[in-house]
Amino acid sequence: MSVWMGMPAFPDAARKALADSQLRANLRAATGTIRAKRAAVVAERADWPELRAAGRAIKDRALRDLDNHLSLLAERVTAAGGVVHWARDAAEANRTVVGLVRAAGAAEVVKVKSMATQEIELNEALAAAGIAAYETDLAELIVQLGHDRPSHILVPAIHRNRTQIRDLFRRTMPEAPPDLTDDPEALAAAAREHLRRKFLAARVAVSGANFAVAETGALVVVESEGNGRMCLTLPEVLISVVGIEKVIPTWTDLEVMLQLLPRSSTGERMNPYTSVWRGVRPGDGPREFHLVLLDNGRTDALADEVGRDALRCIRCSACLNVCPVYERAGGHAYGSVYPGPIGAILTPQLRGVDADPVSRTLPYASTLCGACYEVCPVLIDIPRSLVHLRAKVVDVHRGTPSAERAAMTLAAKTFASPRRFALAQRLVRFGARLLRRTRLPGPHSGWTDARDIPPPPDHTFREWWATRTDTPVVDHATRERARLDSGTGAPERDGPREDHARGAGGELGAGNDVVLGPGGAEVLARVRSALGSAREDVEVPREYAHAVEDDVDVVALFAERAADYRAVVRRVAGDGGGTAAAAAVGQALRELGAASVVVPDDLPAELLSQVDGVVLRDRGDLTVDALDRVDAVLTGCAVAVAETGTIVLDAGTGQGRRALSLVPDAHVCVVRAGQVVGTVPEAVAATAGADVLTWVSGPSATSDIELHRVEGVHGPRTLVIVLVD
């Protein structure tokens, strides 16, 4: 369920939130900071409008042919060793996950932050089955320990300040020191200590996904703290619950999404970590991978040609950070897992506009100012959808007796007749003069709290017009009778005409040959019913930049951008024999105080010639506990991205399995100048076909405590890059 049980309608919840001055101060500071960060990184991109247009087209292309993309995704995941499950609703998804956890013999799971699992109330379902779920994202952990509810998509604990978090940790964390301060670094360290053993010992992890690539079967998780990497890499079993709208058609589409999402959400060129995987990779990561594809109302939204725009959402939260209503009322007032403007259109569609008081009032939780549309990276016209949903709310209640409906019926009858309208004008004018009031009585008094009732005019417009022209006033009914008598055609319409004709699209595909089961067959049938047989052929415009300007030194730019995100960069000259690189590696490890270092078994020996401490070569036999006792890891990389300061590992030569660069406290990475490319599109193209990828931009980090950035949460605390010219 996307709506929390027992929540009041939005106006009532917002009224309570507005009385909380501390909440409003927290929200004002946080949203203002995120807005400024986003604006700065977006301003760097002259091609931002082109990226947004491409993002919109990619999502529309996926939705317009969703059944075929889902079938292909399921086929590719299965071919890569994964198992695909289909969930028609929340109950079916929860039963599936509970069954998989029990089959693994586990009594607890670790979780990556996931809106989908919150939507279906998975934690509650697991608890009812006797299974403990541990949230590992710092903000989600704060919410869980406080028996609270998330209030923001990106920073769920945005409503709590550091003092409140310190007091919560002291009460609920046995390992928290009694003198724990409210310093964000101390709080992040306490969370790391609290969860470390859970990560290292977990048998089952549950995640969501930001994107699922139909063409390759790859799933993508974008995060900052390293908890995602821990959950996706270390347990024996990984279960990913993913909404069916998260699919994108092709691998190339990632070159757009990986530029739009980080800049729109965290206000960064690239999040610290992006993990990509396909199915199961022997010896590297979980032994089992289960993908649960979730409908839970999404096909209902898909059937609405206006409402389906909400399914483009990539959960960046940019709309929340600019919304004047959210900034004052906060996320809890929305009564749903999905707060803010996107929640105001998504929740009523997943639940039904008349499902509960929350769903029927959320379409009105907006001033329709349009700020959300201006920042949406995939161009969702939220104001248009809100107006559309308001009309649906009205339609649902059409015919239900109410004072408002009686007043509107009377007004309609009055306005339909020129005589009745003229009589009403005279009565209003006479009554206003007789009563001589400037304030309305009773429940209408709120309207006149800040304004007076205007005095009635001496004449109506018709009366005034008749005194200034010889042209007679002819009412609409008289004009229509004249048209019909003259045989000039059908009566005119008072409103604009609507053209509901749909453009011709490609024929409905038969889908791919994949075992669906009853759940999958029904979900795909729902998708086909929602889309119909006439489908639009959406072409993706790719007019955004694919390379940097010719005069840009990509190696220097990479060094600058990597340092921006707190990586330590040591640039050395290439000398053919690798002596300078080896010296830089040795010096870096000494400065880190590393008495031991683990390396991939195929790392070139010359890089280790000046290492003083113990060197462990990993042949896949080192346990997670053994890796946790090592001080540092030394690897190479597959490619490096200049514009974002990112290194990309694909588990190839000299890089090792994913756990190797994750568990030790410091990561030293050797990057050759020839491996540096200018842009994200070039990096995506260079890594096509990889089974696993880890994009690393600086050390692990969090900004979940009053948006204060802290390095070193669950992944390595330090990243040193030895850049060899």
UniProtKB/TrEMBL annotation:
InterPro entries: 4Fe4S_Fe-S-bd, 4Fe4S_Fe_S_CS, FTHF_cligase-like_sf, Helical_ferredxn, LUD_dom, LutB/LldF, LutB_C, NagB/RpiA_transferase-like
Listed GO biological process terms: lactate metabolic process
Keyword Chaperone: no
Keyword entries, A-Z: 4Fe-4S, Electron transport, Iron, Iron-sulfur, Metal-binding, Repeat, Transport
Chain intervals with Basic and acidic residues compositional bias: 491-502
Entry protein name: Iron-sulfur cluster protein
Superkingdom: Bacteria
Keyword 4Fe-4S: yes
Ranges for domain 4Fe-4S ferredoxin-type: 304-325
Ranges for region Disordered: 475-514
